[in-house]
Amino acid sequence: MKQKQLIFLHIFYWAMFLVGTIIVPHFVYDIRHIEFKFTYLLTSLVCFYFNFFIIVPRFFDINKLYKTIIGFSISVTCFVVIRYFTDEVLLPYFGGLSNYPAGTNFGYYFFDNIYNSVTSIFISTVFCLFSIYSSLYEERLQLVEEKKNAELKALKTQINPHFIFNTLNNIYSLVYQKSDKALPAIEELSQLLRYSTKDLERDMIPLEKEIGYIDSLIGLEKLRIREPELLIIEKKINYPHLSISPMILVPFVENAFKHGDFRGKGFKMMISDESKILHFYLLNFKKNREKDVVSGIGIRNVKKRLEILYPKHELTITDSETEFIVDLKIDLRDE
User: Fold this and answer.
1) Quick one: which of 212, 200, 47, 56 has its CA closest to 120?
2) Using CA atoms, how far apart are residues 316 and 325, in angstroms rounded to an integer?
């Protein structure tokens, strides 16, 4: 609970208490000796905050009922003692007034005032517990948020090295073949690294930058593919400035190039953002060999990030013997 809300509750309670204890009895019922109402208000005020700040935080324990009973007994005793001192000691001494007939023993006074103390002590306990559990809830939310941010940072740092590893393998192959495409590939890689180094530090980037990154990646991969015309790419972007988490689509494209079969085959990629719903579709043909051990790192990471950042996303992955299909929808309207 926010501090302002808690203060408002306290003010509201004491305003109602003042009205019900002093104002209404005095002006409506014309009760004499209003002094006793003021001593009751003063006693309630002192015991309310004695219970709120000291008793409940130290004694209330849902697993140890005896501690709670002890704390409640201390608060009630405090109320009775303070009121006895004000009503039966101070008022008789200074004003010649007494709330109870002469000769009333303390035992009778104690039990008669238990009822009067319950309201303030009960409300004080409720307010205090409400404040404690609200604080715990806010701390829990903060811990969850910190954990989520830490996990996202860890996942992001895993994406970049994995991408570099895959791309360097491609460039190594071009250099080994003494291909003229090697130097352009290195230049393309340097541009991609500048993108990734800058954008991975941000929580969100424009959708057009994520797609631009994918275009650069595809351009790099085309350098090593014999039939780049087989790569079918369809884009229909109406809202290029929509915000999206960086590197949320790239791992799927990266995975397609690393494990796809491009010998007389290509892939099909479609990206659209109709009604600000991002729809990403990717189909690639699989090589006739078993994947290596690290093949799923990027996909596993992006799945975790989607669960954290876009819990309402729709992701369907079809992994057959010959095809790997990704169908992803993300609502970007609130981003």
Assistant:
1) 47
2) 8
The beta strands (E) that lie in the chain are given as 205-206, 231-236, 243-244, 267-272, 277-285, 314-319, 323-331
Residue at token pair 């709670």: 68
Number of H helices, E strands in the chain: 11, 7
pLDDT digits (tens, 9 = 90+) for 153-171: 656 655 556 557 767 887 8
Q: Residue 156's closest CA among 204, 218, 220?
A: 204
For the segment 200-228, the average pLDDT, to the nearest whole number, is 85
What pLDDT band is residue 30 in, cutting at 50, 70 and 90?
A: low
CB 282 within 8 Å of CB 298: no
Give kind and range of the element (H or E) at residue 193.
Answer: helix 182-199
**Residue at token pair 């811990």:** 143
